[in-house]
TrEMBL record:
One of its GO terms (molecular function) is nicotianamine synthase activity. Keywords: S-adenosyl-L-methionine, Transferase. It comes from Gossypium hirsutum (Upland cotton). Coiled coil: none annotated. InterPro entries: Nicotian_synth, SAM-dependent_MTases_sf. It catalyses: 3 S-adenosyl-L-methionine = nicotianamine + 3 S-methyl-5'-thioadenosine + 3 H(+). Belongs to the nicotianamine synthase (NAS)-like family. Synthesizes nicotianamine, a polyamine which serves as a sensor for the physiological iron status within the plant, and/or might be involved in the transport of iron. GO terms for biological process: nicotianamine biosynthetic process. This is Nicotianamine synthase.
């Protein structure tokens, strides 16, 4: 069990102590410096498994994830407001400091999706899109150019800010829709989507995440695809970790763990067909594991022939 005496944990705890005493998490010199240090500390591959942390460190990690979530939301709000001041906001997305990361992550998610789906999705839902829905914008602009995107966020101001970014674009304004809705209140509407993306910070602890996944398992169309963002190693101090065992009702197809500046891991899973002996009220079945596979060739355009990602086979992940 990893405790607070571990050197890496000590460094992360020290940064947490400094971040938690800040007067505000809005973008500023101090906020940017501390979170940059935190990300750089958590980025390299490490021996740490955040599920095996002692209770004291687990509590710190839980609080740190919520601070990261708040800071990320404020950062996106800040830049969404700036972008909205331009006549064509989408022409200036590169002012967002992590735009390149979103380009890489969206390319990765598109590659994974096309590997496991033979058809271009007609309708996609993105849950937890926020005030700066870069994943939807990048996927719709560069990869899924005929797909309609339905973006869900619980915050009304997120919807209004996001809508301003795409309203002046003749293409995306027709294909991107925004809903101020708790996804837990969406039931039969989920059956419309071929693919559902679940943002990393929807469900910031294990119980919350499991409840959301169970809801999606109940109402998504059988055969539809779920794309989730997770975290691996010390990156689990920044984002919640999704345990593949918790994806009941879905077949996990692949798990990718980046080792570059793209922080989030990506999990793709498919909703099981409805078993004949189960009712519509109880669609969740036992988890089925895919065959062992390892395929990195599809990532070459993204990786420039440098292996920055590893695809775990699911049996190893669960052993």
């Amino acid at each position: 069990m990893v405790c607070e005496k571990d050197p890496l944990v000590q460094k992360i705890t020290d940064l947490y102590d400094q971040i938690s005493t800040l007067d505000s998490l809005k973008p500023s010199k101090d906020v940017n410096m501390l979170f940059t240090q935190l990300v750089l500390t958590c980025m390299p591959p490490t021996h740490i498994d955040v599920t095996k942390l002692c209770k004291k460190v687990q509590q710190m990690r839980s609080k740190l994830i919520r601070l990261c979530s708040e800071a990320e939301g404020l950062l996106e709000t800040h830049f969404s407001t700036i972008l909205a001041s331009y006549d064509n906001p989408l022409h200036h997305l590169n002012i967002f400091p992590y735009y390149t990361n979103y380009l890489k992550l969206s390319q990765l998610e598109f590659n994974i999706l096309t590997k496991h789906c033979s058809n271009v999705p007609n309708k996609v839902a993105f849950v937890g899109s926020g005030p700066l829905p870069l994943t939807s914008i990048v996927l719709a602009s560069f990869h899924l150019k005929t797909t309609s995107f339905h973006n869900y966020d619980i915050d009304p101001s997120a919807k209004s800010k996001a809508l301003r970014l795409v309203s002046s674009d003749p293409d995306l304004s027709r294909r991107m829709f925004f809903h101020t809705t708790d996804i837990m209140d969406v039931t039969n509407g989920l059956k419309e989507y071929d693919v559902v993306f679940l943002a990393a910070l929807v469900g910031m602890d294990k119980d919350e995440k499991v409840r959301v996944v169970e809801h999606l398992a109940k109402y998504m169309n059988p055969g539809a695809v779920l794309m989730l963002r997770s975290a691996h190693g010390a990156r689990g101090f920044l984002y919640p970790v999704v345990d593949p065992c918790d994806l009941r009702g879905f077949q996990v197809l692949s798990i990718f763990h980046p080792t570059d500046e793209v922080i989030n891991s990506v999990i793709i899973a498919r909703k099981f067909p409805m078993p004949k002996h189960r009712s519509a009220e109880h669609p969740v079945g036992p988890m089925k594991l895919p065959n062992k596979c390892f395929d990195i060739d599809m990532l070459n355009p993204l990786l420039n022939h440098v292996n920055l990602m590893e695809e775990l086979d699911i049996e190893d992940q669960l052993s």
